[in-house]
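Late entry, evening session. Most of the bench is empty. Finally got around to the prediction I had been postponing all week. Sequence below, unchanged from the version circulated by S.P.
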Amino acid sequence: METVFIIDFGSQYTKLIAKAVRELEVYAEIVSPEITAEEVRRRAPKGLILSGGPASVYAPDAPRLDKRIYDLKIPVLGICYGMQLMAHDLGGHVVRGEKREYGPSMLEIVHTDTLLEGLNEKEKEEVWMSHGDEIQKLPKDFLCLAKTANVAHAAMKSRDGLFYGIQFHPEVAHTPKGKEILQNFLFSVCGVQERWRPADQAQEIISRLPDQLAGARHVLIGVSGGVDSTTAAVLVHRAIGDRLIPVFIDTGLLRLGEAERTRAVCEKLGLQVRVVDAGARFLKKLQGVIDPEEKRKRIGAEFIRVFEEEARRLAREVGPIDVLVQGTIYSDVIESAGARGADKIKSHHNVGGLPERLHFKIIEPLRSFFKDEVRQIGIKLGIPEEIIWEQPFPGPGLAVRILGEVTAERVHLLQRIDAILREEIRQAGLQKAIWQYFAVLLPIRSVAVLGDGRAYGHVVALRAVDSRDGMTADWFHLPYEVLENVSRRITNEVDGVTRIVYDITSKPPATIEWE
C-alpha cells in the first residue's frame, strides 16, 4: 500500500493532517521523530510530512529529525515547525519573529509552483498561522514561493522539487485552499496513485483481530449504543464470534431509555448483550463531588470496577475473561494527552484512570480512526442508521452535563430535557447537519413568573456545534423557530425549569462539552 508518513513534532493538529490526507484517499501513518533513515528506507513511503509543534528549532531540547532522511530522495513537506526544522537542518537560519502570527493571515504568491497550483496568483489567499518563529534566511538552492505581511518566507521549495515548506496550516478548515495544497503535494509531487478508503478497512481489521486475540478464551466489551462501541463490537464479533461477550453498564447517567434501546439494537446485530444495573453505585460515588475532573476519575474507576466484578461473574459461568475491547477513537486519545507533546485538557474514561491491577489485555480496534471514518466502517458493516448518526456522548454520561453535584433528581430532570431537545432536532431534520448537540443543567437558579406567582427555577444551557473532527468547532446557528420550540416545550413540560440559554462559544477557546 502506498503510504505517506507524518512525522509528529508535538502539534495537537498532527492527526488533522492525517485526516486531511485520508480524506484525499491516501493512507497516512503518523510516526515519531525518532524514526531512523534506515526505517524510512525500508518502509519506502511515497512522501513525508513534517508536522508543526510547540518548540523552537534553536532550543537545545527541540525535537530533531535524522538528517540522513533528507538524502533518501523522498519528497518532504514541512508544515510550520516542520518547515523551520527543514530550513535549519539544510543550512537556513530561523529566528524569533518580530511579530507573532496566530490566526488568519493573507498569503501572497511570489513564485508559481506545482504545490500552489489552484491558488489565486493575482489576489491574496487566506491561510491560518500559528507561530512565533520565522525563517530569516532560506537554505542554499531554495526558492521563496509566498509571503505574508509579517513573514518574508511563508512558503519555500528546493530547486530540485523534492523539499517544500509552508509556514501556515493547510490541515485546518481556516485555510480554505489547504486541501488543494495537500492534494498537489500528494499527487503531483509524490506521485501517489493508489486510493485508501476507511470503509475498505473493515475486513482488514476483522482479519487481523484473530491474531491479536489468539489465546483469549473470552473477550469482554462495554457497549453504550453509540457508533464507536457498537462498531468495535461488531468487528470483534465477526472475527471471533460468541467468544465476545458484550456488556452494557447502566450507570444511571445515560439518556432516557438508553438501556432498552441498546439491548434492542445489539440483538438486531446478533450481539447478546448483558445489562448490568449499577446506577445506584455511580450516584453514591458522586455524592458531594463538584469538580468535573474528579467526576470523570471516579466514574472511570467505578466503571472499571464494575467490569472487573462482571468479568469474575462471567468467568464462573463461561470461563476466564482475558481481553477488554474498547471503542476508543482518536479524539479520546488526543484530549487525554495521548499524542506526543499535547497538553492534557481532560480525562476520558476510555483511556485514563485504568488501575494497574487491571488484568485485562486492552484491544482498541478503532483507536486510529476519526468519528466520520468510524461511521464509514459502520455503514460497511451494516450497522443501523440510528446508531451510525447517534450523537457523540461522553463516557461519564450526563454527569459532565450536570454542573455541580450529581443527584438522582437532577439526572432525571436532564434526561427529560435531553429527550425533548433530541426530538425537536429530529423533527426539524437537523440531526445529520449538526455535529453534536445537547443540554447542560446549570448549578444556578433564576427568577421566573409562573401564572400569577413568582418562581425560582433551574437554568438550562443548550449547545450545538458544527465540526469536522471534534478538534475545533463552531457554534451551530440553530433556526430561531427550533430554539423557540425547544424552549417552550422544556419550560412547559419539565417542572422546575424556567430559563433556557444558548451557548454561542466556539472551540477554542471553549471545549465542546461544558465539563
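Two things to note before I forget:
The first helix runs from residue 14 to 23.
Confidence is low (pLDDT under 50) at residues 337-349, 351-355.
Will write this up properly tomorrow.
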